[in-house]
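Incident review: delayed structure delivery

Summary: a single-chain prediction request sat in the queue longer than the usual turnaround. Root cause was a stuck worker, restarted by the on-call engineer. No data loss occurred. The affected request and its eventual output are reproduced below so the record is complete for anyone auditing the incident later.

Affected input:
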Amino acid sequence: MNERVLLTKINGVELAYLEEGSGTPVLLLHGFPDTARTWKRTLGFLASHNFQAVALFQRGYYPSAIPEDANYSIRQLAKDALGIIDRLGTTKAVIIGHDWGALAAYAAAAIAPAKVAAIIALAIPPFLVSEDSTEERQVRPHNAYLGQGEASALLLEKDDFAEVDYLYTLWSPHWQTARVHAKDVKDALRLEGRSRASVDYYRLPLPDADADAFSVKLSPPGLVIYGQDEPEVRKAIFRKAGLAFLGPVICREYPTVGHWPHLEAPDLFERDVLGFLKSNDIS
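Output delivered after worker restart:
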């Protein structure tokens, strides 16, 4: 099937998204380093099960525009997601988010729970149970060194984006085809201004007011998925994810999987997604 890229202006920024199928809307949000094409297989799977699947290119990621104010705050990402839901002409949607996309999904559910039918979050735990410990910072130092503006962009670009390959290997050591996917990601980051946009997500700390607003028990049902290859300190946090939801929640640890569960174990991921949605009468 030919790729269908649509454009719309949300919160003053032109955003692009991929769309397949019709039915109950499901919004898919990617993280770093990645693009909306991380959901290529998921889009087709959801469309084949009578869902309207929409994968957003997050602001700053081509072909979405680079915002003039460089606002990549989690609150802004959540507002973009909620704006897409409104633009689809629906009252609510399921949100599937990976990495930064998971953070946006949690934030959207915290600030506008009536618009979020369910959350499926990959590789990032909910705000309410997250910890900013020394051990956590040690196992994920990129959160610091990627937040240095142009210096971080130059680091990302060095030696043909070797940092991207390094992160894929570090975060998903058992994923045999990671470099194939990473090549497409690097090609997207080569475009002018795009590497800087991707690292500027890490530039500003989460404001205390937003941390408080997002660190609440979430009312939509949730499915939280993480990999066995995550560091032990992070797995301990994921195992507490159920404490962050008021309603039904499932936490799944995938064996020999790292940071990209939807790509490393796609059959298992699709089975879990469909089962979770059906169990919550979403079809």
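Verification: Residues 110 and 214 are 6 Å apart (CA to CA).
Action items: add queue-age alerting; document worker restart procedure.
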